[in-house]
DNA sequence: CTGTTTCGTTGATATTTATCAACGGATAAA
DNA sequence: TTTATCCGTTGATAAATATCAACGAAACAG
């Protein structure tokens, strides 16, 4: 059932993971089902868990003064969800995270994460790799946001995350890219003509 | 001379730093002067060092197909410079980093960073704190980029980084915010009227 | 099956932002 | 000093994108 996570660790680390260690991990992390629309984290909450998505889809977003949602992050299988700021500072989160599909998540607390990292080299390596990958990816996203027009941002996104296009509707993708659904619709029509 | 870095470590960590450990750090990291306009990293280079700015100012930017520069990151005293992607993947960087003022930088290689982190708990804590702070800050920047209009982005920036406004000219700030210098000039005029 | 919501599209229009061109002041270099 | 470069501003105009409104199709809930 959680084989997916085991493979994930193996993929992100060089040290092998013993049967014993894997048992410790499964004994520590709890599997929880979030039904469609259920909150993983709600604005004002403190983020006590990070979650590894075993299957399903979630989104992280902020809500502005006019009630409009802005998608900060999308996550599918093998992605993590949680709010780093709230998690590390223990402050109320300004974001919401909810399930877009029914989603199975492996939960871990900060304390347990520290424990497992100390006890299991492969786990520690994985954590470091996650952070590395995340910072690289988000750096690119900032670069795209400040230097590319809407159509190129979409082209980039479609190229790098074709799976997201299959799982999330266009108005969600649009919000993620910082444009309206109407603009995205027009951008897509254009890009079809040219191919 | 590098007292600034010592204070920085102390501030970001809870473990004290012994005289012995500090000596090890200064013996490992090299102080280098970059004169105004000198490259710290040039597009196509592999980023072999991260640098802690002891004094001065640097900028990181990409250059698009039309030759326009897009400021990815600005850095003053107590900030780090380097390209995470190139550094971790050992791939040629797509960014440039150069000195905006004459700048003194403490250099460290990846190997040395690992060594010092293993040997010195305070150093390790500092590295973790940097990564935490960085991910939180850049997350907010993405949020701003996709959910705020130009004037609010500027107001936010001015509020959070008043020191940057003093040290970098407006066209650099504008690029950092993803707008043109003309637009920034108009935004500022508006914001003056209202206060 | 039937009403309801979600989703994507399109058109008309408004707003925001970029582009282009020009200017004056400040600063640095010769 | 003179000359050149950098910097910020402004106006006129163009382009990109948002907003508002309406529609039909599909998916879903009762």
TrEMBL record, chains A, B:
Q: Which domain of life is it from?
A: Bacteria
> Whose protein is this, by species?
Niastella populi
Task: List the protein's name.
Answer: Cyclic nucleotide-binding protein
What InterPro entries does the database record attribute to this sequence?
cNMP-bd_dom, cNMP-bd_dom_sf, RmlC-like_jellyroll
Q: Where do the Cyclic nucleotide-binding domain residues begin and end? A: 33-113
Q: Which CDD domains match?
A: CAP_ED (cd00038)
Coiled-coil zones:
none
- SUPFAM superfamilies annotated for this entry? cAMP-binding domain-like
Per the UniProt record, one Pfam family is cNMP_binding
